[in-house]
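Request from the bench team (R.T.):
"We need a structural guess for the complex before ordering more zinc ion. Sequence and SMILES attached. Just send the C-alpha cells back."

Command: build protein-zinc ion structure.
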Amino acid sequence: MTLEAIEQASRAEIEALQGRLLRAQVENAWKNVPFYRQRWEAAGVRPENICTPADLPKLPLVTKEDFDQDLIENPPFGSYQGNARPVRIHASSGTTGAPKPFFNTQADLDRIAELSARRLRAQGVTPNDLVQVTLPFSLYIGGPIAIEGAMKLGAGVLATGTGAMTPSRQQIAIARRWRPTVLCSTPSYALRLTEVAREMGLDPARDFNFHMIYVTAESCPPETRAELARRWNARVYDNFGSVEAAASTYECRCQCGWHISEDAYIFEVVDPHTGEPFPPGKQGALVVTSLFREASPFFRYRVGDLVSLWDDPCECGRTFRRMSPVKGRADEMLKLRGISVYPAAVERVLRTFPELGAEWFLVMEQRGGVEEIVVQIEAAHPLPEQEREGLASRVADRLKREIGIRLEVEIFDPGALVSPEAAEGRVKARRIIQRTPHSPEPVKNRE
Ligand SMILES: [Zn+2]
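Reply to R.T.: structure attached below.
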C-alpha cells in the first residue's frame, strides 16, 4: 500500500499548498458568498490580507448559530452557499436547532470521494473487499461518502442501509451468505447487529467474514471499540467528520489519533471562551476551514468538538498532523453541581463493565428542586435483583472515581432500553433525555 505524495510532503510543502488553495477559496467567497463578505468587511479584513494559513486568525469565527440566523434572514438555503449550483444537498443532523443545508457541486463530491477513498485505503481496504454499508442514505452525508469512497477505491459495495431499510435479521442473513469483508455502521448499530446475530444462533466472531468494522456518526470510546473488535473479531476504525467537513480526517493503521487531510481542510484549536488560537497539544474547541469547495465553502467554522492537535511524527510515515480523540462536544457538556459531565466520558466508564449491555441513556431530571443525572443502562444478561443492585453501586463508584461526581445508576434487563435509533441504525443515537418529574420507568417508555 503506497501513500499519496502529499501524505508524505514536508510541512513547508503542505503549507505552501494550503496557502494557494486558501487564497483561491477566500477570493471566491469574497466575490460570491455574501455571508462571509459581510462578516469580513465588518472585521476590516480583505482577501489580500489572507495569504498563508498563519493569516487565518484574522478572519472572524463562525458558529452554528450564525448559520441558523442566516437561514432565517435568507430562506430557504441561506446566503452561505454561494452561487454554485448544487448537484446534491446534504444537511447536518441538527443536534442543535434546525437542519442546516450544505450545497455540493459534482467537483465537491468527487473531491470528498477521493478523501473517503484515502481514508479507507489507510485502514487496509483494497479493491478485493466487499463493503456492507448500513449507514442511512438521507440528508446525512456519512452513508453516501462511505459508498462513493469504497467505489473510488475499486471495492464492491452492498448498500443495505439502516435497519429501517433492510431489517436487522436480513442484514445478518446477507452478511452470512454474501460474505462482505467490511462493515460500515454506527457503533451502536454494529453492537446491535451482534445481538441480532446471536439471537439467530450465530457467533459474530466466527460465522462472518468481516476483517474490518468502520464506524462513524457517533462517539466510539476506546472501550466501545474494544468491545466491537472482540464481538466481531475484526479491526475497528473510528471515523470522524461532519456534514460540513466531510471525510476530513482518518485513522491510519497505527490508530493513534486522526490524520487531518490537510490538502483539503485546515484544522485549528481555539480557546472555547475567548476564541484565541491554541498551540498544538493544548485542548480547545475545533475550528475548521475548507480548501476545495465550490459550493458552501466555509471559513473558521466552530464545529463544537473539544480536541487537541498533535504535530509529532506518526509511525505510518504520513506527515499530515493529527487530531486527538474528541473529549466531548462543548454543546453536549452537562453541568451538575459545578462539575462538567461529558456523555462520552460516562460511556467510557460504562464500557469497562462486561456485565453491561450496549444501550444506555443519561436522564436529566429534577428531584425536589435539584437537578440530577441518572444513568440508565441495560445488563448484558438478565440479573437477579440483588446482583443488579450490587452492579449498579459498583458502576456508580467507578463513575465517581473517573468523572468526579456521583450519578445514580439504574440497570434494566436486556432489551428494555433498545432505542428506536439503535434498533434502526439511525445516526447519533440520542443519549441525553430531559425528564420531569422523576419516574422509575426506563426512558424508552417515555419516548
Ligand atoms: Zn499515521
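Two things stood out. The domain at 109-239 is CATH 3.40.50.12780 (Rossmann fold). Residues 252, 254, 259, 314, 316, 318 surround zinc ion (CB under 6 Å).
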